[in-house]
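#onboarding

Welcome to the new folks! Below is a worked example of what a typical request in this channel looks like: someone posts a single protein sequence, and someone else replies with the predicted structure as tokens. Don't worry about understanding the tokens yet, we'll cover that in week two.

Example request:
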Amino acid sequence: MAERQEAASGSSALSQWPRLLGECHEEWAAAAASNTPVHWRLSARMQGVDLRGPKPFVDLQAQAKLGLVCQRCLGAVEMAVQATRTLRFEPDEATAAAEDANAQEDVLALTPAPDWAALVEDELLLAMPPLPVHDTCPAGVWETYTRPPASVPWAEQAAPAVSAAAASNADLPARKPSPFAVLAGLRTPET
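Example response:
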């Protein structure tokens, strides 16, 4: 493929990529997995690296729109994920491991034959944001977290007390207690 400088590209439904689908919000994935495409392109070429002659390289590009789990509100946040990577191939694992430490590009072994779909999926997984969040979370999400659920036994008793305390202190600026005052309160009287 590299000697002939061939390219391959394609597009398939997100439902064909199980690891990517596993990272998506469940409700979003159920609704969008079959009609959300994952686009990819592989371009092979030979390039000289050293005096031993040219080596096979593959330029990988992939992109997908994924509904990830927002880390603030736990809702679905749709994000475009793009990956671009240059891969160099060596004849075996030992050579690839030895060359990888000094190479600017990722070095992989040609044997066993590379699983191109797995490589595309790996690169998209690595390109995902570590903490996906909405710019502004949808309205109504925070109300769920400000009141305890009705199933909590003390919720009905605590809610009026919390509301009354908040109303009486509404015009006061919020102050954090001094950590030393908190520690002093924990100290036991000496006998």
